[in-house]
Amino acid sequence: MSKQFDVVVIGAGPGGYIAAIRAAQLGFNTACIDEWKTQDGKPAPGGTCTNVGCIPSKALLQSSENYEEAAKHFGDHGISMKDLAIDIGKMVARKDAVVKQNNDGILYLFKKNKVTFFHGRGSFAKATEAGYEIQVGDETVVGKHVIVATGSNPRALPGVPFDEEKILSNDGALRIPSAPKKLVLIGSGVIGLEMGSVWRRVGSEVTVLEALPTFLGAVDEQIAKEAQKAFTKQGLKIELGVKVGEIKTAGQGVSVAYTTAKGEQQVLQADRVIVSIGRVPNTNGLKPEAVGLKLDERGAIVVDAECRTNLPNVWAVGDVVRGPMLAHKAEEEGVAVAERIAGQHGHVNFNTIPWVIYTSPEIAWVGRTEQQLKADGVQYKAGTFPFLANGRARALGDTTGMVKFLADARTDEILGVHIVGPMASELISEAVVAMEFKASAEDIARICHAHPSLSEATKEAALAVDKRTLNF
Ligand code: FAD
Ligand code: NAI
């Protein structure tokens, strides 16, 4: 017997579970299928983000940051501590508990919104008059509309499969049982910097090997330089422009051969290696060929600007389609698709999707970088304000970094905002709102910001566009 639904969502990561909730809110009889399971076989909805991505990484970042604060900065406040130690087992167990709270939260939300949940792998079987037949174990689920949100997988180096013991993806990187003495990260992207920070803070000697000659090429150059300075000062060794060669596991460790930017051959001995060189769209087991669902050469599902695939009533969102691989981008697409199915006008503004790297200092940005504006031949004005001149940052004892505004030279419209410094992840929201409403730098400069707050640095950077900062 098959079960018929108006909307069937395949995948319960941020793209899928949010799409399912929104579809149910709009009155559709909705099902969501997800195969992720806990070690004892129970459903663990939430996808990469909840299980091995955003949430566990931020839990470990918080624990390790607390430890480093206590070890290095509590003394500045007159707080002395004896026998400070970190129990990595407990830190990892806390992270697991945070993940479980989120898994349970999604199951609760499905119940609350009357989304029918199927635990297992969903595979396209065929298209019929009634809709698309999807096989989940022994059950056949039929959806008039189908939203595919099957996410992404970590990319391995050619010929170097993940064993999750010594050669780790993000999955293994989040459950290392004790701080490795020596850790090598391949790729100084978002995962490399976040995971590198976690393990460095709790005692590992971390080397990051990056293929590109520039550090964080997608980030505004001035901000990336400031961040690189801060990470290097913290003890993160970052080698740019390298070519990684053979990786061999032997005995307790692993060796990584590489050629430096100057052409020298080097071999690093480490306890573990984390490979974080990007992610690839995932359609494993989906059987797109059964219904003729089109993929591109990267394996991503081909969609138009509104997430329509080549098949009528089949949509795809999140990491499995083009665009940034971010949880909030996946969510926005999920909501927009559910609303389009309902005949509404859901929209996602790709120009105002914020990026955040949750290191210390945090890095956050929205809109275009200075190098992009130059390349696009746009006439712009820039204004920066350092946290060193912000009262709240001084009180916090965290004055690294700055806020930077880029505005159109003629109209003053904000074209990009870039932050490196404390709480950049929270501060960036103001810039996102401003850009969504097409605000000018002058708009932000004229708005009253609470004192003393980090957000005053945002106002001051907006004032700096017109060369009239008040506190610098
Ligand atoms: P996913 O979250 O990957 O979910 C896909 C789901 O579909 C999975 O549960 C999978 O099991 C299921 N599935 C796949 N195929 C099938 C099938 N055939 N049948 C049934 N189920 C199936 N993004 C941020 O915005 N902020 C962050 O801080 C952040 N941190 C990250 C940290 C790490 C270490 C990593 C790896 C990623 C991070 N990301 C972050 C990226 C974020 O996790 C992804 O962009 C997001 O999870 C994409 O959501 P999604 O719904 O498209 O896919
Ligand atoms: P990434 O794309 O951020 O960085 C990969 C890095 O590896 C790049 O700098 C690239 O030049 C380098 N690289 C590629 N091949 C290499 C090689 N052979 N040798 C050495 N370096 C090489 O990818 P990452 O860090 O794996 O993360 C994947 C995605 O997950 C991110 O792009 C992001 O979308 C998402 N993510 C988001 C987070 C956040 O929002 N805070 C946190 C973590 C991940």
From TrEMBL:
One CC-aspect GO term: cytoplasm
Binding site for FAD: K58, G122, T150, G151, S152, D319, M325, L326, A327, H328
A GO molecular-function annotation: flavin adenine dinucleotide binding
Residues covered by the FAD/NAD(P)-binding domain: 5-334
Catalyzed reaction equations: N(6)-[(R)-dihydrolipoyl]-L-lysyl-[protein] + NAD(+) = N(6)-[(R)-lipoyl]-L-lysyl-[protein] + NADH + H(+)
Enzyme Commission designation: 1.8.1.4
Keyword Manganese: no
Protein name according to UniProt: Dihydrolipoyl dehydrogenase
Organism: Ramlibacter ginsenosidimutans
